[in-house]
Design brief:
single chain, alpha/beta, 14 helices, Rossmann fold, 7-stranded mixed beta sheet, 5-stranded parallel beta sheet, 328 residues, 2 domains, 20% strand
Length: 328
């Protein structure tokens, strides 16, 4: 989708438009709410564009039989709550929410409006669904990964930066997923000769202070786990890793395309594609309780060679051969 076309879609989707087109065609107008926990970054806008495009391919056309209300919360908890309540108040047919932070306020606001989530780490542990196979309530969707994936990050960091023996793990301790990811990393790290410590992601000054203190000793590296706060502070985290010469592994591609060293994680585009398919099934009469929560079928390894060179790292040929994409 071209930028001009995309901006037209997003502009028309900002509020519920008039239902004149649906009335003229005789089709019933359906309403979708979209809650994006983060700011409207280029990466996230592209993901929303994918969601809208797949809906169009399935026959749901904005302005004809579909109205879309897209809310951007900028990573602020109070704004996320306000936007969640605002969407529910408009009585949509289904809500798409991206990330963990929007789920609690949505579930407090409604137990009847169908909710499709994506980019969520542990919906069972967080209490969003009963089980993966049988969600049981009004929510279902797509997880980022199973916790075992977190155990691969220390090994990848060891491959690309074998001198690293101390690792700071950036996490959101307020999320069950933040605690769970760190626990897996902590259990695996000794096998590759690493000692790990947790940095709880809060605000920018705290991140900067703690990372600087960690980097004051040699042989350090970073692992950045999944959270909305990590995305909100993405540019700062990447800049700190560069400033302090800390090799870092991230949980998704956008960090590497923005200058980070390496990522291994889910394909975000696949998540939005799947979410559109589930929305289509909901609009056609299926219930969230009957749609199983799905895990990714594709994980991708992304390496930024320019960043590796800046850090003085030589990427092993065996690692390059496994990469799904190399940024040069």
């Amino acid at each position: 989708m071209r930028r001009r076309d995309f901006l037209s879609v997003i502009g028309s989707a900002a509020v519920w438009p008039a239902a004149a087109h649906a009335q003229q065609s005789g089709e019933r107008m359906r309403r979708i709410g979209v809650l994006m926990n983060t700011a409207a970054s280029k990466d996230q806008q592209a993901n929303v564009a994918t969601f809208v495009q797949v809906l169009q391919q399935l026959g749901w056309i904005e302005g004809r039989n579909l109205q879309i209300d897209i809310r951007w919360a900028g990573g602020d908890p109070a704004e996320i709550r306000a936007q969640a309540e605002g969407l529910v108040a408009r009585a949509p047919d289904v809500i798409l929410v991206t990330g963990n932070a929007g789920m609690p306020p949505l579930l407090r606001a409604t137990r009847t409006v169908p909710i499709i989530f994506n980019n969520v780490a542990d919906p069972v542990g967080a209490g969003y669904v009963d089980t993966m196979a049988r969600p049981g309530g009004n929510a279902t969707g797509f997880i980022q990964f199973e916790y075992s994936l977190s155990g691969k990050w220390p090994g990848l960091l060891n491959e690309i930066a074998p001198d690293v023996t101390r690792v700071a793990v950036l996490r959101d301790a307020a999320l069950a997923a933040g605690v769970g990811q760190f626990a897996v990393i902590q259990s695996v790290a000794p096998s590759v000769g690493m000692e790990v410590s947790a940095i709880d992601v809060q605000d920018a000054p705290e991140i900067e202070r703690v990372v600087a203190r960690f980097a004051s000793a040699p042989n350090g590296g970073l692992i950045v786990t999944s959270s909305a706060l990590a995305v909100v502070h993405m540019d700062l985290i990447i800049a700190l890793a560069a400033r302090h010469k800390l090799p870092a592994v991230y949980y998704r591609r956008v960090f590497v395309s923005s200058g980070g060293l390496m990522s291994y994680g889910y394909d975000a585009v696949q998540q939005f594609h799947g979410a559109a398919v589930y929305v289509d099934r909901i609009l056609k009469g299926e219930k969230p309780a009957d749609l199983p929560v799905q895990a990714p079928t594709k994980y991708e390894l992304i390496i930024n060679l320019k960043t590796a060179k800046t850090l003085g790292l030589k990427v092993p040929a065996t690692l390059l051969a496994r990469a799904d994409d190399v940024i040069e």
